[in-house]
Amino acid sequence: MVKEIYIAGEWRLGRGDKIQSVFPADQSVNAEISTASLDDVNEAVEKADLAWRQSSWRNSMPHERARILYKVADIIEARVDELSRLQTRDNGKPLAETRALTLSAAATARYVAAACETLNDELTTQRAPDFMTMSVHEPVGVVAAITPWNSPIASEVQKLAPALAGGNAVILKPAEVTSLIALELAKIFEEAGLPKGLLSVLVGRGSVIGDAIVKHPLVRKISFTGGTSTGRHLAHIAADKLITTSLELGGKSPTIVMQDADIELAAKGVAYGIFSSAGQACIAGSRLFVHHSIYDQFLNRLVEITKGLRVGHPETAGMHLGSLINPKHLASVDAYVQLAKKEGGQVLVGGEALTEGDLAKGSFYLPTIITGLNNSAQTCQEEIFGPVLVVMKYDDEADLIAQANDSCFGLAAGIWTENYRKAWQLARALEVGTVWINTYKKFSISAPFGGFKESGIGREKGRLGILAYMQQKSIYMGLSEQPNPWCD
Ligand code: NAP
């Protein structure tokens, strides 16, 4: 049976083409899904605008909006096993990872609900006896939320929760290859009591349906997570429409292992930082700088750990890496490894796809470590988005900082050292939005997240994350018998 999509609070077949949702690990078909047509986009946006203007949502009490988000969190948590399995079927990540993503989505909804309830506006009056001023935040209207395939449930709730908490309506366009979880989220928001019309989930190709959504005149904000070139394209559209964007984009994050690092912890942390999610993470620590005095010892241990990682069926317990999203992406990852060899790199471990037995049906790639390149190599400058780590040696700290910052990206960085003074200085010198010291890929919903340079604009998460979906209004209230000079 062809799956329906969620258009303005109605479940029905989209009027676009049908697509297949495929399990990346063996190419079996999960479902056939109808996609939205351009007419569906127009209808969803127009009805979202109407629902936003006419329903009491935007003027509802914060605790009323929060109540729905708390329910969403409870439902996600109660269905964690089923949602994790669905996410794994959608994008091929190991179950342990999709379970963590699902629980983080529930935690996000709960945190945003609490932030919504406790958010205050400000009395901004200084010493003005004849008038009082107040600064209030108001919703922007219809928000376009566009998400990638690598961590759908987490990135989708990270947009839906603050946008709805801010009193807006949302049109969500998930990546076409991972639409199942977004459709499930629509059911969850519906069950939690979100008024009809405020949410649509439109499945379809980004360049057609995504483009039509963001260009629609009634869409007043774009919240996008995905690649830098798509982000740049959307920023142009936003500039033409004079609307705001939040862009969470790509990365090529450096990790630094200093001479006094705990080698065992650092080697395990570095392996986790690049190879978890099979490297399909914006924050993957894909460039590694190791101090020359510990280089050989560290590298030997890292290679040993990497050889011990289990690559396999994502539904089998204990796998470290599952399948890449699809054969096209596998070919792109492998092409980067071949390019690295042409650039003079040596592959110490990995460097090939798994093509034997059952795994041949999926897109499994071995965790790969490359040495012998310098930071200006194309392999060190472009985002591979796969399990490929390039390791470089450093000596001088000023040069290290210059090389680590020599990237168009600025999303994240890792530092491994026992010297906290040095760690602090380095953390401040790196041009990135997030720095992990003696850990990696840890997340707190209360810490704002986003990129420097071409890794993005704006921040998600944090107690004030809702404000990214609101606009500020100043209100002046005259208190004097003679409010203006000409009144006497
Ligand atoms: P992508 O190709 O940019 O696609 C992301 C989303 O944008 C998908 O839903 C896609 O739709 C849609 N899209 C594509 N072209 C569009 C257009 N012209 N107008 C409107 N929407 C359009 O990125 P991806 O390959 O899915 O994801 C990987 C990238 O995301 C990597 O660069 C990664 O670093 C980045 N990422 C960043 C973060 C962060 O927080 N900074 C987090 C996760 C991922 P379809 O795919 O359905 O066509």
From TrEMBL:
Residues 11-475 form the Aldehyde dehydrogenase domain. It holds the Pfam family Aldedh. PROSITE patterns: ALDEHYDE_DEHYDR_CYS, ALDEHYDE_DEHYDR_GLU. Coiled coil: none annotated. The active site is at residue 248. The keyword Coiled coil does not apply. It comes from the Bacteria. Keywords: Oxidoreductase. SUPFAM superfamilies: ALDH-like. GO terms for molecular function: oxidoreductase activity, acting on the aldehyde or oxo group of donors, NAD or NADP as acceptor. Belongs to the aldehyde dehydrogenase family. This is Aldehyde dehydrogenase domain-containing protein. The lineage of its organism: Bacteria, Pseudomonadati, Pseudomonadota, Gammaproteobacteria, Moraxellales.
